[in-house]
Amino acid sequence: MDPRELAFTGAAEQARLLAAGAITAPALLDVYLDRIARFDRELRSYRVVLVDSARREAAAAQDRLDAGERSPLLGVPVAVKDDVDVAGEVTTFGSSAYGPAPTQDSEVVRRLRDAGAVILGKTCVPELMVWPFTETLTFGATRNPWNPDLTPGGSSGGSAAALAAGLAALALGSDGMGSIRIPATWSGLFGLKPQRDRVPLAPHDGAWGGLSVYGPLARTVEDAALFLDVTASEGGFVEAARREPGRLRIALSTAVPPLLTARVGRAQRAAVAEAGALLRELGHEVVERDPDYPANAVFAQALPRYFRGVHDAAAALPRPERLDRRTRTFARIGGLVSERRSAAIRAAEADVTARVTEIFDDVDVVVTPGTATGPSRIGAYQRRGAVSTLALVAARVPFQAMFNVTGQPAAVVPWGLDGAGVPTSIQLVGRPFDEATLLSLGTQLETARPWAGRRPPLS
């Protein structure tokens, strides 16, 4: 098989090829190591590539395959975001303020290893995962393989760029305010924010006051479902992805949650309209209806937890004085959110969730734009402070944070390209605990409008 085509083959298909003996785990790893050497000097998607340990893991995986063992990801190279612990390698959180290397894997990495995954490396993030662009003073800027002048997004920007450029088979991300869905959108990938607590966060439980979750950035819906099957406490997600969704009632919405200032672009509105037309052709009932977003939910729920989460993350670092000035400002603002205030915010969450999810008494899925606009240029916010940067970036990505507050699952499905040649997406929002419907509908859309064969210019 042509190495370039193999690199862009999804994780599930690679696992099948490995099990059939069509490829070997060391040879598959070499494909990615070669491509990383060729392309990542410009992209900067990886903070570190774990060459030696990955070679050992690939060799061990091949021994297990040769002995007849079969595991869901046996021999498949997976990239891990650098806010997740990999034993023996520092977790930098995009900063030079980090502490010693952990001695144990995060639980999600342990589960990936148990499924046979080869841990390829750790991918770049913005400092403390604050921003929807991936640029740091310590590790530089990660670029979008569709247009290297632009960011791939953040905070799982390195994971998205690596996967989009064919430098990994599957990538682990985290999502506290859209950090899987934003870079998946701008990198042309399927990205899934699972239901809160679906995938274990240990030892980083409770990150960002319960906003944050771990989830996959994937080339196909099946790959994302496979990730959930091996990392969640319950399975059946691949089976769900293969089922027909049946006739669903689907609401289209381009409404921006109250108090956010954002103008939804032409390409993003077109994606929702085109999705509505396709969904009707597929037999679904499609209506136009907005969720009942509480007037102050983003400012009273999402932002205080976000600021306080950054404060707590900064306070846990051994050398916080090394943080960028903008990050330190962000953390100081978070320090103004007291423990008492944080508890009150969490106590009010149920009422917000009930109001936002009331729409699901009448519909099965809500479709929104993936983002309001395309990504920013590299360095666009370099000289700005914390508050002005936040105001500007929030206008690009208003559709994510609400569903971190409610905790319900949401996925982005690749759609077209905007005027800058950067991918767009639609966001599918499901009922609480109903990833199955999103996966089933995602597969139906993937079949009707395939995206996995697209290749960015820098690949």
From TrEMBL:
PANTHER family: GLUTAMYL-TRNA(GLN) AMIDOTRANSFERASE SUBUNIT A, MITOCHONDRIAL (PTHR11895:SF7), TRANSAMIDASE (PTHR11895). It catalyses: a monocarboxylic acid amide + H2O = a monocarboxylate + NH4(+). One of its GO terms (molecular function) is amidase activity. This is amidase. Pfam families: Amidase. Its EC number is 3.5.1.4. InterPro entries: Amidase, Amidase_dom, AS_sf. Residues 28-439 form the Amidase domain. Belongs to the amidase family.
